[in-house]
Amino acid sequence: MEFEAIPGVGKKTATALAELDDPERALETGDVAALSQAPGITQGRAARIARGAIRQEHGANGEFLATNRAGEIYRELLSLLQERTVTTYAERRLETFFPTSAESRVKEVRTFVEAAIEREADAEALDALEAVKPLDEPSDVRVRDRCLATTDAERYQEATEAIPELSVEVVEDARGLAELARGYSTVIAIDEAFAGVDVEGDVRVNPSALDEPVDIVPERPLAFFAANRDRLRAAIRVHRLTDLEPPCDLDALETALDRLDTDGTVAGDDELDRLSTAVDDLDAAVSTAESVANDHLRQSIREQDVTVEGADLLSLVEQGAGVDSLLSRELADEYAEAVDDAREELIGSLDLDSGEADIARRTFGDDPHFPVERNEEAISRLREELKTTRDRRATRLKRDLASELADERADAEALVRAALELDVELAVARFADDFDCTMPDFGGDEGRVAIDGGRSPLLDVPIEDVDPVDYEIGGVALLSGVNSGGKTSTLDLVAAVTILAHMGLPVPADAARVDRFEDLHYHAKTQGTLDAGAFESTVREFAGLATGGAGSLVLVDELESITEPGASAKIIAGILEALDENGATAVFVSHLAGEIRETATFDVAVDGIEAEGLVDGELQVNRSPVKDHLARSTPELIVEKLAGEHDTEFYTALLEKFE
Ligand SMILES: Nc1ncnc2c1ncn2[C@@H]1O[C@H](COP(=O)(O)OP(=O)(O)OP(=O)(O)O)[C@@H](O)[C@H]1O
């Protein structure tokens, strides 16, 4: 894939993307988490890149949102979707949904939505989602007791890139390897030429080492899984709590994670724990055993009546023998018992196996002595034996777990990706549910929008208080109506439904048909009369639309305030004529509908939002515009109300002026 062909992707970003494992997949699926793994790319930037890639793939190059107000409505809708996400991933991923006239893209999102709106999740699943984050690659794994060695500069470069966790050393020959072996516990020579060399120390020749990184650095998968343990556990929980199909055996992955400590070492192995404790407690255990023997012996001596015949005593004294020979002669059994006790104490407290116990027994010799003394040499041997067995076991466990986890890596990534994508789906599902949405009929080419029971999610009233609106547009129309009757809100509703439909998303209505438009021009109400310059640029803007607006949906709110009413009506009539001629679809909200209709050279349709009457001085409005009907205005209704209440000629005369 030519990354630089993606809109918004320059040389630097293209190089960063190329560093990813599978950038094509990430771009195609809008996987902002994977894209943001590329150096220097944030999740926000990743969303923009993914959007560019989707545009390119579907030929969706034109900007659908042609005006500021259209862009604002899109952003408000996007926020409503984003508010319903739990993860930052889903928030950013939703930014890859945009309105477009490209049918294939709309179809693609509609397929996604069909599955998404079936999704359900309870509070517990949403809570589990909180802890799901894109997986992180720990960058600080350094292994200092092992190194790679080569004689070749190119191989050196290759090795530093393939295995950055280890130092790579350049040597001249086998002697260089021997020197390295003095500084590192293990040296791995990666050149074929070293095959068969015999060097002192742990020097291994492995020309294919760079292709087997897990064997060389089991710390890599261990560090990866240790760093991501909580995220993976959360993703496992999400799968268990929802109907997501897991990509792997969840129990097996969980068990493997349980065997891993946060620092990347293996946990939960009883034998390794036994050996580690034995090494740590050895000195203390020997001291205790020694005391046991001495206490025992002291007690025996104290309780013993030793009778020595005079001749024997004489011979002992003459030989210069010490009390030890007396001990050996008279208390041999007691001594043996005391030493036995000490040995059993040592073996028992350190929980030694039979081989280790044989060495441990030598800690206390059979020759009687008082006090009983330990044999330092035997203790050293026992310590060495325990340490070697412990380290060997730790290495083996590490390797086994590393290779098991390395095999699980792709599944683990898929697991987290699925959980994060679920959050995107759930946000769409909840949006659809909260606003009672339906999938619109999309794709006709008659320039029509028909909304049945539409409820604008952008209104300033709670959704349950929104009056449903029916409105159908096609061709060019004026929308008249009472003050605060809901004209602007109707334009907002048409814009929102059109934008959502062009995003491929469900719309807040009982039913809707939205034809395909090239773009949406929505002009918000102009605030106050414009000065000459601003007036000129507004007219110019509409001139562009009037000539090139075929296929556009044009929504304009009260353009009349750009200049004085008489001139405004003429200008609006002229714009409508041009739009009508080139086949655009347009709705212009105006209080001058009557004047514009009279000025226009074609039969412009006028729809109206009308008050059904006044109840307690409050307007009762039918929010759905009535077709081909110039709505009565608010002042007229007030006069009508006064005329009804007071039977005076003044009010009747005023009322007649409106007829
Ligand atoms: N469908 C609806 N359901 C409930 N309330 C609505 C609806 N439409 C509009 N409203 C309420 O009426 C208020 C006025 O609506 P809006 O601004 O759209 O009227 P307008 O006809 O454009 O007013 P103006 O003539 O002043 O420009 C809104 O702020 C909202 O509170």
From TrEMBL:
GO molecular function: ATP binding; ATP-dependent DNA damage sensor activity; hydrolase activity; mismatched DNA binding
Top-level taxonomic group: Archaea
Entry-linked InterPro entries: DNA-bd_MutS2_arc, DNA_mismatch_repair_MutS_C, MutS, P-loop_NTPase, RuvA_2-like
Protein keywords: ATP-binding, DNA-binding, Hydrolase, Nucleotide-binding
GO biological process: mismatch repair
Positions that bind ATP: 481-488
Ranges of residues in domain DNA mismatch repair proteins mutS family: 474-659
Gene3D superfamilies cross-referenced by the UniProt entry: 5' to 3' exonuclease, C-terminal subdomain (1.10.150.20), P-loop containing nucleotide triphosphate hydrolases (3.40.50.300)
Keyword ATP-binding among UniProt keywords: yes
Transmembrane segments: none
Cofactor: a divalent metal cation
Protein task: Has ATPase and non-specific DNA-binding activities.
Family, as annotated: Belongs to the DNA mismatch repair MutS family. Archaeal Muts2 subfamily.
Protein name, per record: DNA-binding protein MutS2
